[in-house]
Amino acid sequence: MPRLSCPPPLPLCLKRLGLWLAAVACAVAVAGCASFVPQPGPAADPPGRYVDLTLPFIAMGDTQEHEPTGFPMHDNDSAVDAYVEVAQRPPEQPLFGRRVLQWVLQQHRHEPFIHLGDVMDLSCRSEAQRMAKIFRDAGSPGAILPGNHDGLMFGIYGYRILDAVLDTDAQRWNQACRRGAAPDNPRHKTAREAFSKRDFIHFYVSQYASLPQLVPGLQPPPDQGEHRLTWRNPDPQGFVSAVEAQMLDGYRYADSFIAQRLKLPRAAGATRDVYIVALDTNQAGALVGTWDTLMGRSPGSMGHVHPDQIAAVRPWVLDAARRGDIVVFAGHHHWASLGLPTRILLRSLMSNVPHPLVYLSAHTHRGFWAEHRALDRRPLLELNVSSLSDWPVAYRRISFAYDEQARRLLVRGQLLPGTERRIDSDADLLAAWEAQACAQIGPVPPSFLSFDRELVMRQRQSRGSLIEWVWSGLGPVCADCELPLYVHAQSYQDELLDAIAQVGAHLQPQAHRLHEVRLPAWCGPADFLGCVKALKAEQAQGFKAQVDLFRRKAQLVAVMDEHLDELRAPEAGAYMTCRAVQAAKIDFDQTDEARNNDRSEAKRRAEQFFRVEASVGME
After folding, report:
1. Cβ atoms of residues 77 and 472 within 8 Å
2. 47-442+449-619 CATH
3. Mean pLDDT calculated for residue range 425-440
4. Distance (Å, rounded) from C-alpha 588 to C-alpha 615?
């Protein structure tokens, strides 16, 4: 919805406010009242004579690294979080959440990985740079599929970021990505801090091109202009074996795509090769604004694959069919969230595959097994992985086996983190994290769990009013309407600072090294804790003073956050992983079941979340 150039008359404002509240109330009511119907799942597996085709690989999704220190936006304010889970996550997640991904990759350094999308959250350059460090240190080959958050703001807004003069919202997206909210920081005050879909593809390909031992001959694409990329790996055993990409500029950036062909490591005695056709389900199409989103027209909520991408990957499918290889499909969006035209196109593409069909996905944050028979008599088995940012925090270790006589494909999807016993409940899953990560912390006081519980509750209780957020869409930015936003944002920065302070309280100095951080000059002679205490005690009077105080708090959070990324002590990584997982579980437990996006244990059990393998045949 475009912002007005001048404040509307009060009756008109109230009328529009009523319309907005009605729309929001309707959206909330629909979300809260919609009944949950479990998807049909695969039946019990019949006996089979399966031969292993692949060695295992790791599959995860939805890390949603978030930039919490840019200029605040109502779209990410705690007032929205009060109505839409999870617009604002517990403070432990943006500080420590990426350590969960790092921990997973380090635990499986000798196995390839597939990230099924939503690496970022707000879609900022700073988010991408932080995650790139983790992927570069993985020690194993991997691939990342684009998610709806990887190029759209919060995964739903496709703002026209190249038209900043006329597009107020795009300016605010860029400001929200300016880490530290500091006007004097040249590293994060450029006009391209917001990360479009085209930016994502360019950054991803460029990062991979810097690893010639994995992708020989792949060249970084230009950072601007329309560009078509076709690459084939000359190494027949390379994990990333082919890339097709189309990068579009201007208003069409959301229709850009990158498709990847992945060759899975072959098991001893395998009779066939297995390839994954990793699709880009985020060709979002027409760009929308706030009003469209409230009315349910968000480009990121539904997945789309356009005919140009289908044409690009069709030769991969046909080549595999001619060789007798197995083709598995993958995309960020789960099958039911793909638009009908996309599902028709994909079913047509899959008709060229002379073996059972499997689709890997993410996006739901809950995880499940499902079997789809619509649009074709041949079943499609789907394994949906859960999130690494929200509960249930988990990932899968996947491999494939085939029964040649029965023509059945077996998908093994071990639920991890693993223990000696199978995970059959949320309690088992939490216990596995405690045994795998929390137990590696060392002599840490047991108080951090109770502290995180109090911190999560404080964040939830400090939420503002949805009316303040709605009102912001009715008129121009002004001190009166923006002041509550900065008050809420300061509360969140205070909670982030408190979470960081506990790192120093719980870890030994050689592990946390907080005393080594070069603080902003305005902290004076105070150490980190003294600077935090002074900031929290400061009483800002007036809008300008509130903005200035917020900027300083955000700058200090950003400085300390960068320091956390540099901590290499094993107990520090385990500690931050443990805190992120524990906070996600605490937040989940405090969320009403009607508002947790069908992530309750009972609903996940109805969709076979805890199942670890399933097979699919030809009919």
Report:
1. no
2. 3.60.21.10
3. 92
4. 32
